[in-house]
Write a structure and sequence with these properties.
- With about 425 residues, the protein is mainly beta.
- The protein has three domains: about 90 residues, Immunoglobulin-like; about 100 residues, Sandwich (Immunoglobulin-like), CATH 2.60.40.3710; about 150 residues, Beta Barrel (L,D-transpeptidase catalytic domain-like), CATH 2.40.440.
- The protein is about 15% helix and about 40% strand.
- The chain has five helices and 29 strands.
- Strand 22 and strand 23 form a beta hairpin.
- It is elongated, with a radius of gyration of 38 Å.
- Pathway: Cell wall biogenesis; peptidoglycan biosynthesis; Glycan biosynthesis.
- One of its GO terms (molecular function) is peptidoglycan L,D-transpeptidase activity.
- This is Lipoprotein.
Length: about 425
């Protein structure tokens, strides 16, 4: 009996201890507990007071990052801007997803930041910005965005180049790397103007090419400005422009050369006056040279000409000619028409016989190092954009889109090809 009583006593003490311990666990587990009557200390109203106090102590500086966090198809020109109000920026860090840092600059008044380099397409960037308010309290903002991908963007490759000096026949020619279905929207994002005040119209040859020119040749000495404001312009469904660029080029002296396949002479004129007459050899009766106004689009001191590349092959499929060092060659068409030096033909043919496969040949020497030859003179006195007018060959007029030869389309037809 006595032993049993003692056991019950110990059991009661154990229960009391367990109850106290359990109660302690409950107290420790109640992180924000308590009754709404405040007996336990505050409840939700207490937490709200804490949050309010924290907010009152935080920075007033407001940071805005553009584009917003998680953006895709972002511009490579106007994205990645950081601005702050009610404060000044103290640090901005921009990196690619692999950690490569992107250089940028904070403005003089320290209220904005932007990258100082061109962003890349299809790249994810991360931005972390810190600013402080008038009391020195720091604010932080982070964002990540991805720029537009090549599949979802288009660019236009243009000629002539920025800063170039070209001949009076040089059009602005833009070739797009994606087919443009929204031609009007794209054309509205492109302006071409001249210091001469000449009206400029643009013409779409197809979904990938648009050329712009005045009614008559550019005025010598004028400056032409091309503005591309295509960033964000939808050129086709889901395909956007990325270019934001201004290009200027200068028009040189007015030089137009006239090739007469009948007299086999070329008259080189400047400002309407003949400055030189050069004997030529144009296309043979079997391979006539195109007629029409042609613009020099490329110049090569020496280049290779292989007949196979333009359809002149023998019975074995080899090129009828393959000359690896054609001197003083200047392109007149995409299809292979050149005006170039010829050292392999007899000197007697120039001015007397048309013997070429369709090009216009001038007397020259091998190596392109003799400045006294007619071909060397013409090469040195020609600019990309100069006009060469070919007549009396008996062939058709060259197509306006075969090279930079839109001058072979009358003004009404040219303007009819505008999308706006």
């Amino acid at each position: 009996m006595e032993k049993r009583v003692m056991t019950n006593s110990k059991r009661r003490k154990g229960l009391v201890a367990a109850s106290a311990l359990l109660g302690g666990v409950l107290v420790l587990s109640a992180c924000s507990g308590g009754d709404d009557d405040g007996a336990g200390g505050g409840g939700e109203s207490s937490q709200a007071q804490v949050d309010k106090a924290a907010a009152e102590k935080s920075s007033e500086a407001q940071i805005k990052i553009t584009p917003g966090d998680g953006s895709s198809n972002a511009s490579i020109n106007n994205s990645a801007t950081v601005k702050v109000t009610k404060g000044t920026l103290t640090e901005v860090r921009m990196t690619t997803s692999d950690g490569t840092e992107v250089k940028g600059e904070i403005s003089a008044d320290r209220t904005s930041w932007q990258p100082s380099v061109q962003l890349e397409r299809a790249t994810t960037y991360k931005l972390a910005a810190t600013a402080k308010d008038s009391e020195g309290r720091a604010a932080h903002e982070n964002a990540s965005f991805t720029t537009v991908s090549p599949d979802n963007s288009f660019i236009g490759t243009f000629t002539p180049d920025d800063g170039a000096t070209v001949g009076v026949g040089m059009p602005v020619s833009i070739n797009f790397d994606k087919a443009i279905t929204e031609k009007a929207a794209v054309q509205k994002g492109i302006t071409v103007s001249s210091s001469s005040g000449q009206e400029v119209a643009c013409h779409w040859f197809n979904a990938n090419r648009m050329d712009c020119r005045p009614e008559d040749y550019w005025k010598e000495g004028s400056t032409v400005t091309l503005k591309l404001a295509l960033d964000g312009v939808e050129g086709a469904k889901g395909v956007y422009g990325v270019q934001q660029k201004t290009v200027t080029f200068k028009i040189g002296r007015n030089q137009v050369s006239y090739v007469d396949a009948q007299t086999k002479q070329m008259k080189v004129t400047q400002d309407g006056k003949t400055v030189k007459t050069i004997p030529i050899s144009a296309g043979s009766p079997e391979n006539k040279t195109y007629e029409g106004q042609m613009v020099i689009s490329e110049k090569f001191k020496e280049t290779r000409m292989n007949g196979a590349t333009v359809g002149f092959t023998d019975d074995d499929g080899e090129g009828e000619y393959d000359i690896k060092d054609v001197p003083h060659a200047m392109r007149l068409s995409t299809s292979g028409t050149f005006i170039h030096g010829n050292y392999w033909g007899a000197k007697s043919v120039f001015g007397s016989v048309n013997t070429s496969h369709g090009c216009v040949g001038l007397s020259d020497t091998k190596g392109a190092n003799d400045p006294s030859t007619p071909a060397a003179w013409f090469y040195e006195h020609s600019l990309i954009g100069d006009v060469v007018v070919v007549k009396n060959t008996g062939d058709k007029t060259i197509a306006p889109d075969n090279g930079l030869n839109g001058w072979n389309m009358d003004w009404a037809q040219w303007k009819a090809g505008s999308a706006v």
